[in-house]
Design goal:
two-stranded antiparallel ribbon, single chain, 6 helices, alpha+beta, 8-stranded mixed sheet
Length: 234
């Protein structure tokens, strides 16, 4: 009976103070975001609460009545950006109609484009990179009492992403903002079981994914758009 009592006490202590083995996770280094907005943009948002904005995207052949471009899932990402702009009080212009008007006018002067399209801002997607390589050889051991970093025996690699934007203030015909946001894989750290390995012992390597999954990237675009709006208005 005393033996069972000791076991119960030991189990209770483990449940209370977490007697499980240390958790091992991999934390990839953070690449800082790049955000720039000039003073004219700040002043513009002080006086304009619901600006008219259009999203311009790379290699866009959208028409006002059709949208046949697939862009390897990029349309999902562009739609996510536009929806987030709508949620934040912007009046979002149809990018297909905007392109048609632009092509018909053959006018590269953005100040004239404002009169033609009733657009105040152009948010241009400069680039979306879905295969940014992140690498580290460090492992973090986590217990209930501490975190300890150690050097691993292999390089842990995974694909992250980045999104670059340019904001044009149409009335002044000027680039008013430039932005680059970075997504690192497993923002809170990847457990070792997350990785798929190939080879054995000293030949062990990480099996890489080709790109970041589209659903993950869609959430990333929503977050970056919120950051953009904060940068515009603050």
């Amino acid at each position: 009976m005393k033996h069972y009592t000791r076991v119960y006490i030991a189990l209770a202590i483990c449940l209370t103070f977490s007697c499980s083995s240390p958790k091992e996770i991999v934390k990839f280094p953070t690449i800082p975001d790049e955000e720039f907005a000039n003073p004219n943009l700040k002043e513009y948002f002080k006086s304009t609460k619901t600006p008219n904005i259009v999203l311009r995207v790379p290699n866009n052949n959208d028409k006002a009545t059709t949208n046949t471009s697939t862009n390897n899932g990029n349309d999902l990402l562009y739609n996510a950006i536009e929806k987030e702009l709508l949620r934040n009080g912007f009046s979002v212009r149809d990018r297909g109609l905007f392109n048609e008007l632009l092509n018909k006018s053959q006018n590269s002067d953005y100040s004239k484009i404002k009169q033609l399209t009733n657009t105040d801002l152009i948010l241009e997607v400069v680039n979306i990179d879905r295969s940014v390589l992140y690498s580290t050889n460090k492992i973090t051991q986590i217990t209930s009492k501490s975190e300890k970093e150690k050097i691993g025996s292999i390089d842990f690699k995974e694909k992250g992403a980045s999104a670059e934007y340019k904001l044009v203030l149409v009335k002044n015909n000027e680039i008013a903002g430039s932005y680059k946001f970075n997504y690192k894989p497993c923002p809170d750290g990847c457990e070792l079981t997350y990785f798929k390995f190939t080879g054995k012992h000293s030949d062990k390597k990480i099996q890489l994914r080709e790109t970041v999954e589209i659903n993950t990237l869609e959430e990333f675009m929503k977050v970056t758009t919120k950051k953009l709006v904060e940068s515009f208005k603050h």
